[in-house]
Amino acid sequence: MEKWRIISSRLLRHSSPRMMIGTSQNHGFGGSIQRSGSKDKFGKAERYFEHGKQNVETCSHPLRDSVGNLQIFLARNLYKTCRIHCRSFASGAARVQRNPSFSTINSNDIAFFKEVLGEKNVIQDEDRLLTANADWMGKYKGSSKLLLQPRSTEEVSQILKYCNSRHLAVVPQGGNTGLVGGSVPVFDEVIVNVGSMNNIMSFDKVSGILVCEAGCILENLDSFLGNQGFLMPLDLGAKGSCQIGGNISTNAGGLHFVRYGSLHGNVLGLEAVLANGTVLDMLGTLRKDNTGYDLKQLFIGSEGSLGIVTKISILTPPKLSSVNLAFLACKDYFCCQKLLMEARRKLGEVLSAFEFLDNQSMDLALTHLEGVRNPLPTSMYDFYVLIETMGTDESYNKEKLEAFLLRSMEGGLILDGVVAQDINQASSFWRIREGVPEALARAGAVYKYDLSLPVEDMYGLVEEMRLRLDQSAKVVGYGHLGDGNLHLNVSVPDYDDAILAQIEPFVYEWTSKRRGSISAEHGIGLMKANKIHYSKSPETVQLMASIKKLLDPNGILNPYKVLPHYVVSQA
Amino acid sequence: MKIMVALKRVIDYAVKIRVKPDKSGVETSNVKMSMNPFCEIALEEALRIKESGLASEVIAVSMGPAQCVDTLRTGLAMGADRAIHVDTSSTLYPLSVAKLLKALVDTEKPGLLILGKQAIDDDCNQTGQMLAGLLNWPQGTFASKVVLDKEKQVATVDREVDGGLETLCLDLPAVITTDLRLNQPRYATLPNIMKAKSKVIKKVTPAELKVEIKSDMEIVEVTEPPKRKAGVIVSSVDELIDKLKNEAHVI
Fold first, then answer.
1. Spatial separation of the C-alpha atoms in residues A18 and A8, rounded to whole Å
2. The pLDDT value given to residue A138
3. Which of A111, A299, A325, B159 has the most crowded Cβ, counting Cβ within 10 A?
4. Which intervals hold domain Electron transfer flavoprotein alpha/beta-subunit N-terminal (chain B) (predicted)?
5. Per the CB < 8 Å rule, is B12 touching A375?
6. Domain of B32?
């Protein structure tokens, strides 16, 4: 029995809660709180209305504050906004109700799928569904009754065409390593897992262009490329399980973003299947192609809401033999920033990663991970930085890095540090930084935030959160300092709405005030579906909704996610 | 007492090895090279002995072409006091290495020699033993624990052998070769890297040491082991029995 929880109310500027209840009209989304009916829900609702009202006062956002917008809003749909959603341990999840326009699966559907995919690839087995329904953090759990495993683009196309005609909602799924609940069903959506489509179609050794299917695991691609002398332009902690289709659909960032840039630049082409089964072949392998609108960019980062990516073609950089990694300790955040500036200038083109973690993340990693040892055991420092360089000449690069580090140390930017002497040592340093999310998961419940902020402001947020939460939670900050990307995590023994109320929407407002992004690389998924306004203007969001309506009129692809519910139902 | 440690520059342990197309050897160009892990452990042990006050100096030695200096720099960065580079471009086999080390021992006169038990590229596991034979010194190989007694001038060494652990008591000077569980090598810290820049690396040649390098062995061919075939999922017990009988010939 799932727990009922009301998380936070997104209230408009109303004065009385009564008006809320009275205007329970459904617009695309069904069953809001009924006037008659469960008094219990109502009772709970009232409490949160009060809470929500406070929210409204504090929730002043420059973009949303345009009264004009609100008025249009009120005029159009005065529907009550406090909804209830059954979800255990959800934090910050939008409170959603199942869209009644979606059908439920019946035996004819199962028969059809079995005919198209074969018996083995239509899964209704409870245990397998259990894993497919839950996300990596164990935070989001759907209740899908059907998992499909297509083996080719053609099968994906047939599945989607059928689902579209039957109004069956679909969740595209790959490695299921996402952190915002975007890869698992919210209710009983059909899960379409492309993991069986894992062939490498071709690789051009001269240009480094790789063409493969969306279900290829990132680490496998990296090994394959490694044999050819190349590597994938992205590298993340989840590489052992995440699939390239998912990486592209979420525009994954990772550790080498500072060197190789975004997938928007590295992906040369892709093949996607639209909601109605149309196969869009944009699988070019050309570096330059200025013919018409570059539609593939829409699919990169749209989190499966515009189409299912089935094949990709990506430009891979050559694997340079000389890789050096240093694990450093800095006195304060200001030194970390200056170090970044110096690294950019002095190390230049060989800089391939610049990461930081604070004292608390280091502590968590050392406590909860097995087989890790502190590279700088003599004392605990406030900030740790990892700098990686990748170049062609072994001795030259090592000397360059060491010279830079020694000068930084003399200048007081670094307090202490170690340089990895072989690949094993380098892996153990990376294990610490890449293992922080795992350590956090083991420590208990985590509220996870992924924010893009101006570099000088990044750590200020962590310090403010510490003051706000005081003893009730452990706040850690780490992330891709080189890209201005902070991973703010609040570790608590158990999910607690009171603590959540202290975190959200403060974190989003803080970020928004500095024109940052509330999701640097993790995406929106379900977690931040109604929060997009903190980082995007209403006009932009409206246009996004129009595009969604154009490509997926029935809204079957990954519903309830990415775009705010009120916008989607309007468009 | 001086401790001498021999370090070998090998292909990094984590690199995927590829055989050269002409089967003459393993691909070593453009491949990451590092210190042999067992040599790292040997150096770490020597440093610990020095830090406990039982030795005065740790000397690192490496033999081979000019790039060996990188390995010696790492050794110095870990904490060795000085280094000796035996410069030669000929292929070195364990007996040649042992002879060269013997010549160095005659000059430097260390009280203890610590080597890695084997190199991860050739897996010979011979140099330490041959060296002890040439010097007529006692040897404690596959050491998983070393305890020195300065007054009695003995080293108590726990050896990892097939049957378990064997404890030997060796009179110094002695040769010890290290096994994996002896210690966990330290990282090269920046302050130490800085200090290493001013440490001395002396270069000598085999001719100066009056050692003739001749190899009695010639590598004929290097091939990869046969690739494992993918597993097959059988659909019934009968098929399994059929395969075991007719294909694998095990029943």
1. 18
2. 85
3. A299
4. 23-213
5. no
6. 2-223
In this complex, the residue of A375, A409, A422 whose CB is nearest that of residue B12 is A422
Six token digits for residue A558: 């990954």
Q: Are A285 and A268 in contact (CB under 8 A)?
A: yes
Domain of B217: which CATH number? 3.40.50.620
Q: Enumerate the residues of chain A whose CB falls inside 8 A of the CB of residue B193.
A: 402, 405-406, 419
B70/A419 CB distance under 8 A: no
Enumerate the β-bridge partners of residue A309. Answer: A272
SS3 for A73?
helix
Under an 8 A CB cutoff, do B191 and A416 touch?
Answer: yes
Rounded to an integer, what distance in angstroms lies between the CA atom of residue B215 and that of residue B91? Answer: 8
Residue B26 · residue B10 · CB < 8 Å: no
Task: Enumerate residues 6+ apart whose C-beta is below 8 A from A350.
Answer: A389, A390, A391, A397, A400
pLDDT at A87 over 50: no
A414 touches chain B (CB under 8 A): yes
Q: Which residues of B touch A420 (CB under 8 A)?
A: 187
pTM: 0.81
On the question of pLDDT at A443 being above 50, the answer is yes
Q: Which of residues 363-382 of A touch B (CB under 8 A)?
A: 373, 375-376
Is residue A70's pLDDT more than 50? no
**pLDDT under 70: residue ranges of chain B:** none
Q: Please answer yes or no on whether B32 and A406 come within 8 Å at the CB atom.
A: no
- Please name the residues in contact with B186: beta carbons below 8 A apart, sequence gap of 6 or more: B44, B47, B78, B79
**Is the CB of residue A398 less than 8 Å away from at least one CB of chain B?**
yes
Strands A267-273 and A308-315: antiparallel
Residues in chain B: 251
Question: Which of A11-15, A130-134, A321-325 comes out lowest in average pLDDT?
Answer: A11-15
CB–CB contact A375 B14 (8 Å): no
Inside any domain, residue B237: no
Burial class of A495 by CB neighbour count within 10 A (0 to 12, 13 to 18, 19+):
middle
Burial status of residue B46 (CB atoms within 10 A of its CB: 0-12, 13-18, 19 or more): buried
Number of domains in chain B: 1
Classify residue B247: in a domain, yes or no: no
* A552 token code pair: 């997926």
The helix, strand and coil proportions of chain B, stated in percent and rounded to the nearest 5, come to: 30, 30, 45
* A392-442 pLDDT, tens digit each: 888 889 889 999 999 999 999 999 999 999 899 999 999 999 999 999 999
Contact between A446 and A491 under an 8 Å Cβ cutoff? The reply is yes
Q: Is residue B108 part of a domain?
A: yes
Residues 6+ apart with CB under 8 A from A195: A149, A173, A174, A175, A215, A243
Q: State the DSSP H helix or E strand holding residue B57, giving kind and residue range, or none if neither.
A: strand B57-64
A415/chain B closest Cα distance in angstroms: 9
With H, G, I as helix, E, B as strand and everything else as coil, classify residue A5: strand
d(CA B168, CA B146): 10
Say what the pLDDT of residue A230 is.
94
- What pLDDT score does A35 carry? 37
Is the Cβ pair B77, A421 closer than 8 Å?
yes
By CB neighbour count within 10 A (0-12 exposed, 13-18 middle, 19+ buried), where does B121 fall?
A: middle
Give ipTM to 2 decimals: 0.86
| For range A33-59, the mean pLDDT | 37
Give the integer Cα–Cα distance in Å for A191 and A171: 5
Distance CA A563, CA A549 (A): 11
Task: Report the DSSP pairing between strands B154-161 and B164-171.
Answer: antiparallel
**Is residue B233, in this structure, part of any structural domain at all?**
no
Closest approach of chain B CAs to the CA of A429, in angstroms?
11
